[in-house]
Fold Gallate dioxygenase.
Amino acid sequence: MMMLAEEGEWHGSVVPLQVGVLQFPAPSAKRCYDFGKALRQAILSYPEDLNVAIIATGGLSHQVHGERCGFNNEPWDEEFLQRLETKPESLTELTHAEYATKGGMEGAEVIMWLIMRGALSDDICCVHKASYCPPMTNIATLILEEQGANDSSELNPMAQIQGIEQLEGTYPFTVETSHRAYRLNDFLRRLIEPQHRERFIHDQAALMQEFDLTAEEQTMVSGLKWIELIRYGVIFFCLEKMAAVLGRSNPEVYAAMRGETMEEFQASRKVAMQYSVSAKTS
């Protein structure tokens, strides 16, 4: 969007970098930072003189699954942004479990910001910084401008979530979890397909049997047992698809996972609102 000319033509190229942070083992914070440094070397060694913007994404403190859903920590968000600007290497010392403790399980995705920071030099200035936490996720904008060999090996990548089991109401999506619940996650992911979605609404039992869902899995789906599905291994982003198809909002699912009424859950938010991933035209 920033590269569009008035006539709507592109003035440059976009090179996306996909970083998996939903299923563990995931890249460590240090690995992301080191990757940014390697990216910087590649850019600087390019024969042409280029203007390059590194854009990082990922919500600040938030958790959207389990009884801990709705967790936010704005003081940590402010500390993270400050350290990212002035002491980025200190952020590479934190494990995923420590990021989850401070900023929520899904909030650990901020490690992707370290790729951007690693690609910059130490001599930078902050042009703009703002953050706001409405219902679930702290949304931040940080613009840094430049003023003027790393060891990324990990002997045990799962060490990054060591201690995560001490966080009540938090269920990491690991390779083992993914394998156990693969069939059910695949079944729910297919709700993006119109025909599958239609049959799910009008012929759910037969559809679940065709996909060889176990009796336990069928009971959890038909009974809308949100927290049981999370504990079983359904990733939240498939769960919210099912909720949207059934006309349930995300806050309804969050409240149910926390064992609260909608009124109780909404009272804990700065902004009480209803939303889902459902298309408005459906």
Q: What stands out?
A: Residues 181-267 form a domain with the Protocatechuate 4,5-dioxygenase; Chain A fold (CATH 1.10.700.10). The longest helix spans residues 29-44. Strands lie at 23-24, 124-132, 139-146, 173-174. Residues 247 and 278 are 8 Å apart (CA to CA).
